[in-house]
From TrEMBL:
This is DUF11 domain-containing protein. It comes from Methanolobus sediminis. It comes from the Archaea.
Length: 424
């Protein structure tokens, strides 16, 4: 009991002094309308960027006493941290505390006791209407870490785009974990390969540098989201997203497409083929187009290739007619375009392969008689063959010989004699 009394007296003296300092204010401060909050032991509330936590209460008693108090901690988005002890029925302690003419907290009620689940307090909280005394908002992660980044904004196909991020720790205490996460849009890849996540720890006033490079799969303009940084400090995580960036990748982008004028044809019929080559990039390229015949295909007219300089947004097309002399599911091969530009960037583009059904009209008519489902026709034919074989076997079917037991040998001799006289 004496220890608790001495502890309370010590807290009272220390925090009374603290509260007197914190309560210093100008006479002309104008306060906005206050809001009331009920905070149980351990609860916290965010009032206009000030996080107020009910850290502790006076020890519970079996009866009401005049020494009830509440211990508060306050953290602000401006980087401030305060503490206060408030009491509304104890001499020497005030039920009101004001912090830097910005935050005004009053304890309206403090309830402790053995007959309640948890002690609680009712607080009235108001902030100043003046913005002159409010400092510039600095997030904790920016007050702790300094960032400097550089990245490429323009490259050519085949070249790497580089990114550098320098991080400097500006505080004396170490940081156990800082996670850096980068997500690339479609069409960009890390080179060399990476999952885009890096983890670092920092000693006092330590520095780290992250460097990586990316390559583009095709030319174009890429919008890259800002690098996401998460620092774990004092049991909490603090995040920051860096500036987004734009990467322009120059070069030719050669796209090849191949189409037929029919989805299926009959044997020995003709089909028209079109091959289109378009340059969707921003640089011209010399292209060479070549195509090949499918199995059973015979060219009747037109051309299957060509070469020229293809400028951005231009299209080169060839058309030709084929006669298909082989039935079945015929694979139509890819058209191939090889290209090279003035910067000696080169590559090969392919059109998609696909299947062309070539049908024999006679076979189709025979198997489709009486049914539109070819699979059912085949099942019907197989079943008929099996029934015919069964009927032939049944015509030559012989009954099994009767078993005469121990006298069977006499019946065998009788059959031999009978057979002998039938022959003679």
């Amino acid at each position: 009991m004496k220890q608790q009394i001495f502890l309370f007296i010590g807290l009272t003296v220390l925090l009374s002094h603290f509260c007197i300092v914190a309560s210093a204010q100008s006479d002309d401060v104008e306060w906005l309308d206050a809001e009331e909050y009920t905070l149980y032991w351990g609860d916290e509330v965010n009032h206009s960027g000030y996080l107020i936590t009910a850290e502790d209460f006076s020890p519970a008693k079996a009866f009401d006493v005049d020494t009830d108090y509440v211990l508060l901690s306050i953290d602000s988005i401006y980087g401030d941290s305060w503490g206060a002890i408030l009491s509304n029925n104890t001499g020497g302690l005030s039920n009101n505390t004001i912090f830097d003419d910005r935050l005004n907290i009053t304890a309206i009620e403090i309830v402790t006791g053995n007959d309640i689940p948890a002690p609680y307090t009712v607080l009235s909280v108001a902030i100043s209407n003046s913005t002159e005394s409010v400092p510039i908002v600095v997030k904790k992660i920016d007050a702790t870490l300094e960032f400097d980044e550089e990245f490429s904004d323009e490259v050519y196909m085949g070249e790497r785009a580089y990114y550098d991020l320098d991080i400097r720790h500006m505080q004396p205490g170490p940081i156990d974990s800082v996670t850096i996460r980068v997500e690339l849009p479609d069409g960009l890849i890390f080179d060399p390969d990476s999952d885009g996540i890096w983890n670092h720890s920092f000693s006092s006033y330590g520095t780290k540098t992250l460097q990586y490079s990316v390559k583009a799969l095709r030319p174009g303009t890429y919008e890259i989201n800002g690098t996401l940084i998460t620092a774990y400090m004092d049991g909490k995580s603090y995040s920051k997203e860096m500036n987004s960036s734009t990467l322009v990748v120059h070069g030719p982008d050669i796209i090849v497409s191949k189409t037929l004028n029919m989805d299926s044809i009959n044997l020995n019929e003709n089909v028209n083929v079109s091959v289109d080559v378009v340059n969707e990039g921003d640089r011209a390229a010399y292209i060479s187009l070549s195509d090949q015949l499918p199995p059973g295909g015979k060219i009747l007219s037109g051309g299957m290739g060509g070469s020229l300089v293809l400028h951005p947004d231009d299209t080169f097309s060839v058309e030709y007619a084929l006669q298909m002399n082989k039935e079945g599911e015929i694979v139509i091969p890819s058209a191939v375009v090889k290209f090279v530009d003035s910067s000696e960037y080169s590559g090969t583009s392919y059109s998609k392969k696909f299947i062309l059904p070539v049908l024999d009209p006679d076979v189709v008519m025979e198997t489709s008689t009486g049914s539109e489902d070819i699979d059912d026709d085949y099942a019907y034919i197989e079943e008929t063959v099996e029934n015919d074989e069964f009927s032939q076997e049944s015509q030559t079917f012989e009954e099994p010989e009767e078993d005469h037991g121990k006298l069977q040998f006499l019946y065998d001799i009788l059959d031999m004699v009978t057979g002998f006289f039938k022959k003679h």
